[in-house]
Structure formats: structure tokens, C-alpha cells
Design a protein that fits this description.
Strand order of the largest sheet: 1-2
Number of strands: 4
Radius of gyration: 10 Å
Structural class: alpha+beta
Strand content: 15-25%
Number of helices: 1
Largest sheet: 2 strands, antiparallel
Helix content: 10-25%
Bound molecules: zinc ion
Number of domains: 1
Order of helices and strands: EEHEE
Distance between the termini: 19 Å
Length: 49
């Protein structure tokens, strides 16, 4: 699964959560979580912190 913020392969340290808008699984890597990078849902284009 790729990080939805930076697009890199998130591998082991990824956080997976569900889009608050549509429930789509969203993956974010450890770096982006640490930096609180915004994510964007692939399914509904919801953007959040
Ligand atoms: Zn990332
Ligand atoms: Zn969504």
C-alpha cells in the first residue's frame, strides 16, 4: 500500500485508517504521520490532517 500523502511505499510503519467521508482505507507512512502531512482520499478526494 502506498502512502496517500507522499505516494511512496509505506511498508511496515504505515498507519491505516478509514476516510471520515467515505470509509475508504487510507494509508500514511511514518514520515508523513510525524510531519502531520495532509492526506487525500483516492475515492472521494477528501483532504484532511
Ligand atoms: Zn508518506
Ligand atoms: Zn473518502
Amino acid at each position: 500500500m502506498n502512502c496517500s500523502s507522499c505516494g511512496r511505499d509505506a511498508k511496515l510503519n504505515a498507519t491505516v485508517f478509514e476516510c471520515p467521508s467515505c470509509g475508504q482505507k487510507i494509508c500514511r507512512c511514518a514520515d508523513c504521520k510525524l510531519n502531520s502531512n495532509a492526506y487525500k482520499c483516492r475515492n472521494c478526494s477528501f483532504e484532511g490532517p
